Amino acid sequence: MDLVFVVVRLVGYVIRVLTWIIVIDAILTWFPQIDRRHPIVVTLRKITEPIYRPIRRLIPPQRTGYIDLSPLIAIVLLQVLWMIVVSLAFRS
Question: Whole-model pTM?
Fold first, then answer.
């Protein structure tokens, strides 16, 4: 197997897992009755907060209704990163 192919697949898996973690974390915010101190929720936050933090600095959550677009923006940026990795790896 080609090393480039292995690295691209590994990056793809990491991006896919991060995307699902972000989706799950965003869905959990819709349920206020979920204990924020639960170990799973804490682990998800430890993974997602470093991703959200720079996005929130650039685009703070909206004041009306507290709409936080950072999970959506993070997913879009991860997909852009994936496209860049693939295009760089397999350019002719």
Answer: 0.86
